Amino acid sequence: MRTQRQKELIEAYLAKLDPELAEVYRELILHLSGLGYDPKKQRAAIVFNCPWHGKQIAKIG
Question: What are the start-end ranges of the E strands in 1-61?
Answer without folding.
Answer: 38-42, 45-49, 56-60
